[in-house]
Amino acid sequence: MILVLLLAAGCQQKPQHALYKLKELRVGLLPDQNEVSMRTKYSPLLDYIATYTGLKTTLILPTSYEGLLDLFSKKKIDLALFGGATYVKAHRLYGAKTLVMRDIDKQYRSIFFVKANSGIKSFADLKGKAIAFGSRLSTGGYYMPRYFLGKKNIDIVDYFNVIKYSGAHDKTAEWVRDGVVDVGVAHSGVINDMYRDGRLKETSLKIIWETPVFPDYVWAAQQQLLESDVTLLRNAFMLLNPRKPAQKRILDNLGGGFYLDAHHKTFNILNDVVYNLGY
């Protein structure tokens, strides 16, 4: 009887998921823009990673932020580009391991914007208006705007007459441009992308307020990946060299200058914000 109990206890102490070595690389991306834009932006990077690692690399694009977390939880992807909030949740629930982030990923803002000819001139004019956030799991399109509005003693339920969720930053901008809502809040990086590639005209929107800066976006790997594979992937990103024309084009396409090592502690404040506001 004692032997049986000891054996049972030993079985319970085994890890639920054993370490594994990459035979191919399955990559998931946070769908914060439409699919065409995402593929255009990230395909050159993934081609480079495939060449560097020698691994067949497959891009998997979920249709929602929740979908990315689901893919990661079921280990249908090995590597994911998370937003800050989805990373915090993936780390807490599934042990996601930080890999790298761009040089610009610690300096983002949320921006509140209206249609340029709306007649709205200040934040005070937004009271009683219809607002669109992005996904409820978005760092720059929900959590950090809520956090900074709280610092201004603004409760969104009391302040705005209608609250909508577009699911993606680019859709929020389109809703404001097309008059679906009066005001939108989105990640500054995505709005800049839309100006850069022509999806938005410079005269379409007017910024009413910008939040202070916060960190966002991080590449993270499954906790069970062998450390040698984690190092291989990290090196692939960090060795992208802006002095080499082909690699500079990849970095320019991503809107960054280079990649640097990422650490969980970078997201400590966001972790508290997500926890306090709930998932």
From TrEMBL:
Q: Which GO terms describe its cellular component?
A: ATP-binding cassette (ABC) transporter complex
Gene Ontology annotations of biological process type: transmembrane transport
Which InterPro entries does this chain map to? PhnD
Claim: Disulfide bond is one of the keywords in the record: no
Which Pfam family is one of those matched by this entry? Phosphonate-bd
Q: Which UniProt keywords apply?
A: Signal
Organism equals hydrothermal vent metagenome
Gene3D superfamilies, per the entry: Periplasmic binding protein-like II (3.40.190.10)
Its name, as the record gives it, is Phosphonate ABC transporter phosphate-binding periplasmic component (TC 3.A.1.9.1)
